[in-house]
Design a protein that fits this description.
Mean pLDDT: 84
Number of helices: 22
Structural class: mainly alpha
Strand content: under 5%
Shape: globular
Distance between the termini: 32 Å
Radius of gyration: 28 Å
Amino acid sequence: MGLLSWLFPSPEDRLNTARGLIEKGRFADARLEAMDLDLPEAKELVSEAERHLAELNLEQAVSWGEAGDARRVDMHMELATSFKQPGMDEQFRDVRRQLREQRQARQESERRQAEDREARLTAVDPLGIGGSSSLLDPPPNMDPLAEDAEERSQRIALIIENYPAELRSGLEGLGAEFSQAILDIEDGRPDLALTPLLTMPDDRALVRWERARAAYALNDAKAAAREVGAFAELAGAHFPMGRLHSGVFHAQLTAEAGDLPTAVRLLRNLRVKQPKVGGVLLAQLLEATGELSEADGLLRAEIKAHPKAMQLYHMLARVRVRGEDRKAAIQALEAAKVHQCASGRCGTVPIQPEMLRDLAILYFEEGVEAERAQDLVRESQAKGLKPTWESGYMLALAAKAEGHPQAPELARALREQTPEGPLSTKLDTHLAIAS
């Protein structure tokens, strides 16, 4: 396909593209390509693509039902219904039966968990130990109408559930001021939380943890790192803390404070006992410090564990480009295309147009797979590629590869807008522009 036909494809070109997309299993892209074509074969092709999309979304609904995510189940069932074709009634009935059985099993499990949680809270009594000041008590200066007491209690109980069970006894005697401080952090007011937290005992691990959260929300990564370090020392180890892991958070804060070698050391030490945590962050830090071989190995392990996490493939490709292994970088980005979600909409992150752009650039720069590279250019733009320097560079490479008469003009325009440095060197190397 030439550059002009790529820019302005005919209906026949687009129908052929849609057929190719069907063969590659990219049903959502095929449907979009064919649905507005006024050709006899287009309607049949759209119907075929929608049948595949309905089946994919039914599979996704069952998968998310197993995971207990009702919102995504509803989303995929709605999509499946929108793509439903004649003759699919039995498939839909079977999926609804599976979802109903999953829901019943989950409700029974949740009932048992709720009973266990209530028993634990009653036994440990973290909300008011021995009749002392309770975390559920409102602060003395609190507006009694500011928040419903039951809602407040539920929010605090959920936060406490995120604390490791072995640390909850450290809540004894902290009372209403502590609970108000953690609610202020959750509500985006760390400025209100930090002062009362600083008046609380320094030897309480959870006080140091919440100080860290407040400091980080106030953009003080160095102070936050210091507090998380103190938390781990008092707690005797690092723990999962709700959505965060304290050890990974400690390394992240240390890196943000500017000490990359210490951040790497912290993560390596953490992963000796907890090898499944912090791999992605460690890979990023190793890339930043030039330890590319170890970063490559870590990212491959993370991809094996999370094959649909598209950003991991992009990171791996970037590491390999820096390590001058461009063929392996191409393999990483091609693997991302194989594993991307193709249901039309997906809970995982779909492949981004920037990844397609970077893959096309690598093909052009290496002088291989010219037709494949042109397809990637077109696909990246169809997916909403934003106009950046890299996008202009890709188009200049595409024009040069096609021998388009405007290729020299496009290359010169890009060169004029590029300051001297690595990018101008890249242009002079791959587009043969005189400096």
